[in-house]
């Protein structure tokens, strides 16, 4: 990580005649390109500041030297931090030689793709492993144990990167090897996770606490297991690492088994110093085998089955016999009970489906019924069924995953998209969708929207909550379209579930959901630009959509809702007709006449004026549907237009109740 050209010239630099100190601009060429020495990026603010300093205005110099300035990706830097972050040894040295630099100023820096708040120059230099700069900073009094906002120390930054020289230097100069960050994670853990064996060894020699646990209960050994690093595991065992449980009750060997780290698992099984019990070893093998049978990336049927069989033999053919703890049965696993003997397992050897369920049940028994680690394998198995057009087990498995996700307060945004997609596939394949399934998923969507809507006012516009909210809105609309079709499917018409399903849609309408453009679900449903996803829902989730619109209106959607440009749903139909005059407007989904009639029957105003001054009553819709003759305007609407267009606003604004003013302004 060190800058070789800098170190090569360092000695030469030291003998420069002090009367002939080079200018900063001779250290890089700011105007030739945006890149400083050796192509490393320096912000224009850095260059500007240096140029101001070069102008020798001593009044401003100290201020300029130590001020923080903002630059790309929300970073906040001082000159010293930016130079340290990019490994500019000469500049750092010159700053100290010539000015009164505050060594521990703090700012925000991007490191390995994330924004680190409250970092010092030493943290920056340690994080890129620039030992020369680290030395200059420490020699100039930098605090080696200064912590960022998340309590990351410079030593942690060096351990993350894996630069042993920097790690050694910092520890020799007082860095505390046992400082933890806000998650209680230690330097030893980060080095173990990032596969830096030499650093792990060094930290252990220097007294790092080997059995410390994060807030989630993980130890360095758990991280080595996650990263599948056997060499580090051996080191940790040599230093007597205990096999502790994390908050999911998983020991390191189970963490490795869940991730199909075969060699790691068998090494621990054979390692006598760990004193694992026979049952712990059997469970690790069972989890390993079961994971091979349900892992998207490491799926291996034969290996998985062989390991399960071996574990079964250890259970029932060695003495004493260790019986399985039988869990309650779960519907999505076919209500199956795990095999209890070697023979039972041999009997299902050629039954892929039975083996897959067997392994899902094993995973749930060992990992625990609400462990989020279960999710990936359940979703994967469901997806395999969906690909085979075997939709019933898919819906059951995904519903099970949805409950586990919700239990762990995980976002269910992707689950909702997934369900919308699979339901569309079912419709395309003429498979009847159970209304109960639809009702349950819609209820999940509704509850999720309620939760996110509450926190929405407090988040900024680029937040993940906001994009999830819009995504959930679209999935919900997709589900409503699916409902409108499912209600017409065979066997669903007289289902007593219809009423419950409607109630959920009524509840959703009451939420008055709006996009950033102010569109309600009804607007989205009539907007030809809407798309739910571009792949699996095409052909089913088409817009504008008459059936879904009818269902929304039937369930209480506000037919007079206006978007940010004051367009009503009628305006959206008008726009569709004008923009696509040659499309036949009379199919089941695209029948614009039926759409207009539906809205008019629900009492939609034909005379709301949008920001462009267009209202359906006088515009294009009127000519098509003869609105002027067929739909007499009500007296209150006429009065509203008279007020709005014949009276000065200030007159009626103060004379009328607020509600009437709003009503008038819509006309
Ligand atoms: Zn009106």
UniProtKB/TrEMBL annotation:
This is Protein fem-1 homolog B. InterPro entries: Ankyrin_rpt (IPR002110), Ankyrin_rpt-contain_sf (IPR036770). ANK repeats lie at residues 117-149, 150-182, 183-215, 216-242. One of its GO terms (cellular component) is cytoplasm. Pathway: Protein modification; protein ubiquitination. Belongs to the fem-1 family. Pfam families: Ank_2 (PF12796). It comes from the Eukaryota. PANTHER family: ANKYRIN REPEAT CONTAINING (PTHR24173), PROTEIN FEM-1 HOMOLOG B (PTHR24173:SF78). Keywords: ANK repeat, Repeat, Ubl conjugation pathway. It comes from Aphis glycines (Soybean aphid).
